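ok, trying the design again with the full structure, not the truncated one.
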């Protein structure tokens, strides 16, 4: 089975109009779960506040069991994170938190994130950050790493391992290695968008090689397969979604010839991280 560690739904967003049913229709039968957030809490003409967007996510996840909900954090708008505290206390179904520093235009190292990360620590919730170009002043992996070091026990996922291009990926891989070497943050990475242009998975293979051979041993448990669907045209039909998943499977198996590694990247790592059973 496969778990997609990063998807969304949301009507009339800046990325498109995606009903939960449409998103569900993209996922094939071999997708056991998809870790989902409601982008109506991030941007678009249907923009909803932190409470409403997340309660909507919860309704959707209760209806469609494949969706495992993340709570979208509106760090830029909140003064004291009391809404998020309420959501996490009342609804343990939220398996993690979602942050989009780029859309909030709020640098990921800002102290404004602290109250949310304290909640993540208290409730033991991994945090998925959109990570952008290494030079982004909002969502650079460098800024996310800086914040992650202040909360070293909280698992922080670099969504897309930075959005590229290659030098950005390379710099983000070095950050992952540094955090492992120094043991000063718990960083993960999802591979959505990494090689979508070519489908050759070269940067993903580099990421896997480097994490497989750190000075402390094999850290490929920090890598998660993800689509970021339905964002990106390459993610917007069931056929394309299946093709992307299959290309990943074929390329990684061809290179590493290791079925167990593949099963970990596609399913076991994310299952362990979010304690999905
Ligand atoms: Zn996302």
């Amino acid at each position: 089975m496969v778990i997609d560690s990063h998807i969304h739904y949301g009507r009339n967003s800046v990325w498109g109009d995606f009903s939960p049913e449409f998103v569900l229709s993209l996922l094939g039968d071999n997708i056991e779960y998809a870790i989902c957030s409601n982008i109506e809490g991030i941007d678009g003409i249907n923009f909803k506040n932190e409470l409403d967007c997340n309660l909507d996510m919860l309704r959707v996840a209760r209806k469609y069991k494949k969706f495992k909900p993340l709570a979208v954090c509106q760090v830029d708008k909140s003064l004291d994170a009391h809404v998020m505290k309420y959501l996490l206390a009342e609804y343990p179904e939220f398996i993690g938190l979602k942050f989009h520093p780029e859309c909030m235009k709020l640098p990921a190292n800002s102290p404004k994130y602290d109250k949310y990360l304290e909640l993540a620590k208290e409730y033991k919730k991994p945090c998925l950050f959109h990570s952008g170009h290494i030079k982004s002043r909002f969502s650079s992996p460098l800024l996310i790493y800086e914040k992650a070091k202040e909360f070293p026990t909280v698992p922080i996922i670099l969504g897309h391992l930075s959005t590229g291009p290659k030098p950005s990926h390379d710099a983000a891989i070095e950050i992952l290695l540094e955090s492992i070497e120094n043991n000063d943050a718990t960083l993960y990475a999802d591979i959505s968008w990494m090689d979508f242009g070519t489908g050759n998975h070269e940067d993903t293979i580099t990421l896997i090689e480097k994490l497989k051979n750190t000075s402390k041993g094999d850290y490929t448990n920090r890598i998660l397969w993800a689509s970021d669907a339905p964002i990106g045209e390459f993610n917007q039909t069931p056929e394309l979604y299946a093709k992307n998943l299959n290309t990943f499977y074929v390329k990684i198996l061809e290179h590493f010839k290791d079925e167990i590694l593949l099963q970990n990247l596609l399913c076991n790592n994310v299952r362990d991280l979010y304690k999905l059973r």
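Keeping the full-length input from now on. The domain at 2-274 is CATH 3.20.20.140 (TIM Barrel).
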